[in-house]
Design brief:
Elements: E1 7-13, H1 17-28, E2 33-37, E3 48-51, E4 54-57, E5 63-64, H2 67-76, E6 81-83, E7 87-91, E8 94-97, H3 119-126, H4 141-149, H5 151-165, H6 174-177, H7 179-188, E9 203-205, H8 211-221, E10 227-229, E11 233-239, E12 242-247, E13 250-259, H9 263-270, H10 275-282, E14 286-297, E15 308-313, E16 316-322, H11 323-326, E17 335-343, H12 351-366, E18 376-387, H13 393-404, E19 410-412, H14 420-440
Parallel strand pairs: 1-2, 1-13, 2-10, 7-15, 13-19
Antiparallel strand pairs: 3-4, 5-9, 6-9, 7-8, 11-12, 12-13, 14-17, 14-18, 15-16, 16-17
Helix pairs in contact: 1-8, 1-14, 4-5, 9-10, 10-13
Main location: cytoplasm
Function: Involved in coproporphyrin-dependent heme b biosynthesis. Catalyzes the oxidation of coproporphyrinogen III to coproporphyrin III.
Enzyme class: oxidoreductase
Length: about 450
Amino acid sequence: MSSPATNFQLIVVGAGLRGLVCAYEAQKEGLRVAVLEARKRPGGALHTLRQPGLLLECGPESIPASSALKRLLEELSLEATPLQDQKAFKRNGQWVAYPQGLSPSDPATYAMLAPLLGLSARLRLQAEGLVGKGVLEDESVAGFFTRRLGSAAWDLLAPLVQEEWGGDPAQLSLRSAYPRLWQAENQHGSLARSRGQTLQTSRLTFAQGMGSLIDALGKALEGKVPFGSGQEVVGLQRKGQYWQVYTRQGQLEAESVVLACPAPAAARILRHVHPQATTLLNQIPHLPYSSVHLAFAQDQLPDDPYPVRLWEEAGGFYRLSRTRSRFPARVEEGFEVLRLDVVGEAARLSESVLARLALDQVRQQLGIAESSRVLGSWVFRQIGSLPQPTLGHHRREGLLEGTLSHLPGVFFAGGSLERAVADAEQAARRALGYLALSVDTPM
């Protein structure tokens, strides 16, 4: 993708997955589109480091297999692989294996919790169908699962929810984080009566890493959509029927703008043109997230039946995974890479401190000998990259949409990875609809 010219029908701000999908959909409809990205590379949090004998994910390792994503992969002729890990969590200081396939988003799997529960908790779980509908307009994820399944069952599901969202489940909005569960209760009165529906969404990955999806989109846009790397957008200004898009390098012009960037970045861009939108965008919390990868000789590590371990400690939520055990082709034979994901305030620590923290944690959790030597370490920081749909999120989204209606042709498409492709497609459709209307409407 080349550097952009100056005048376009649509400028997409942000070259993460959302931005690239939005540009891809818009150019299919014949629009003149440009993409501006503050970083030197596209992909946002989706980035794969490839070195001889080693492939590391710098961010998310998989993505929910939504119908929108499946359509996109078919168009891009990109093959994906389902990912299903054997996971374990800590209970009373001991590691306990999760039943494979258990998912907070799929009521059909909740029966798998029974062997991990005592008699009274099993009976409580089985009585889910007798629990009435919630009365709150917006209920927390923790409150919903506790009310419907019981506190013991929720204690088991909580680490899986934190693995997905990172944040405090007592603050997460059920209707925003798990909208299909919220709809299932409201439509059927219970989750048990919704089990005939397909609520579960499996997760997909790619043989050459998540960067493969970004590469495929880049290839599809090559020669069609200019890409301005290292061009941070700092503001917008309306002039006539066009938006002036200001970067640190200069300015461009577009009839429509899609802000496919994190909410804090969108807030900064809009602070002068619409302070109320900035206020609403700044009300969306974002958590810091870092991943640390430590390479060892495989014979220096103990056997481990759990490729993924989840636990919480003061200062953050942790996820420890073994790269070669899960993706044998990604690490040279004879070696293993342990990945520690850190979410919360601990993720803000310096790279050197994070590396030491990771080494301390893997030694403590896996019982690795002090003599085991780290052959290499990599730290990837994604500060403020995990948006949190906290209580009241749906109301804030509605207010934001109403506010942006006062900025004709400007649309926001930031948010979580879970809805990335569908939200990007919707933003492209909105831009197309606006442009079609502006052509039909005399000035």
